[in-house]
Amino acid sequence: SQTIHQWPATLVQPVGSPLSLECTVEGTSNPNLYWYRQAAGRGLQLLFYSVGIGQISSEVPQNLSASRPQDRQFILSSKKLLLSDSGFYLCAWASGTKTGELFFGEGSRLTVL
Amino acid sequence: KQEVTQIPAALSVPEGENLVLNCSFTDSAIYNLQWFRQDPGKGLTSLLLIQSSQREQTSGRLNASLDKSSGRSTLYIAASQPGDSATYLCAVTDSWGKLQFGAGTQVVVTP
What we know:
Largest sheet of chain A: 7 strands, mixed
Largest sheet of chain B: 6 strands, mixed
Distance between the termini of chain B: 41 Å
Radius of gyration of chain A: 13 Å
Strand content of chain B: over 45%
Number of helices of chain B: 0
Order of helices and strands of chain A: EEEEEEEEEEE
Oligomer: heterodimer
Largest interface: A-B, 20 and 23 residues
Order of helices and strands of chain B: EEEEEEEEEEE
Shape of chain B: globular
Number of strands of chain B: 11
Helix content of chain B: under 10%
Number of strands of chain A: 11
Strand content of chain A: over 45%
Shape of chain A: globular
């Protein structure tokens, strides 16, 4: 069966520090991978998605970047965190079709102080 | 641009009552619609996936209907239990292959 792992689960970082959140998927190949952010009181915002290694699409201009160094690995990064980067970050995967079901990781809670 | 709306934003029912959650979307050109459950501080758990060619899906006490032409989906949860307390989100896969989420309905089932 397929599983998705996301870490760290909780992170407290000072403003201006770097960020790296990692997500890996097991039990499937060539998945579509997604990073979402869920801010307090707001819905899910799609940040990045990837349909293959090295292929990253950005949905909104921001202080973050994403990379996909391996087929089932998706990394969310920042060189210098802002207060506004605080939120709940969710990684998700779907099969490589438009009709595929989306599965989420457990999320990473980021607090920038 | 596809917009997804969920009404009500919050709902409180006594245990044993049936739950009815609504989701509407503005563009009927969708590939599928998915219902999720989210517990506080947790990720989203997929409940049901309805393809655009289907009218409903059922899983245990859950039943979701889809009326693509009117841009509506309804999630029914029969005989609610306190463990059903969570936020329920719907999402549609639009014609670009991207999921658009509603803001969710927060459900509280009181014993």
